[in-house]
Hints:
Blueprint: H1 7-27, H2 37-48
Amino acid sequence: MGGKxxxxxxxLLLCRLEGFLNSVFTLMNVLLRSPTYxxxxxxxxxxxx
Length: 49
């Protein structure tokens, strides 16, 4: 799935978290969107550099 480092599992969890947060924001009538997996992934690469 994600190899030895588990990146596939991490991606799956972030995608589900993104959907969950967007649902919560919608239920609360808050005009926010959660960051996407791609955005978080790019930020984490910058931090590791």
